């Protein structure tokens, strides 16, 4: 297919397609003349993936590039998913050293309890988790941090569903791509479902009437 058809099928404007080609996010097509190239269904799929990562996942193009490099490289699906998680996490907010140390200790206990492999803080995903727990402590939200074990058990179930999305796929490329999509879109889907569930449970537990007196 030509550039115009590629744009129409993917829903990505021609100018944007050309930009992705220049930046190396989209592999070049098969050259048919000095100024013309032919593109395939694989190009359409790659553009749709980029669109999902940017529009729904909210990733900047630099992060999208890192994810696509991991997909196209020789890394295992497991390591590629690690790249995705790091890019999704972004930089962690600053918290006090004391609160961060406390949060790290709390996480270590939960990891031991669940028999997980411990990862020293330093990656973006882990640093964000430590920062979130530290912030909860600084805000005095002890009930939240006290129930971390329950959150961990729920996280295991969600992770099992996530990995179930790619289980049974035989192509490494398909496993990686499906895993990336499940991680990026799965976060948004689960967050939306969580909000719907919170609305329902809040109505049942807290009531939907007037605001409580201050």
UniProtKB/TrEMBL annotation:
GO terms for molecular function: DNA binding; DNA-binding transcription factor activity. InterPro entries: DNA-bd_dom_put_sf, MerR-type_HTH_dom, MerR_fam. Keywords: DNA-binding. Residues 1-70 form the HTH merR-type domain. CDD domains: HTH_MerR-like_sg5. PROSITE patterns: HTH_MERR_2 (PS50937). SMART domains: HTH_MERR (SM00422). The keyword DNA-binding applies. Transmembrane segments: none annotated. PANTHER family: HTH-TYPE TRANSCRIPTIONAL REGULATOR ADHR, REDOX-CYCLING DRUG-SENSING TRANSCRIPTIONAL ACTIVATOR SOXR. This is MerR family transcriptional regulator. It comes from Amycolatopsis vancoresmycina DSM 44592.
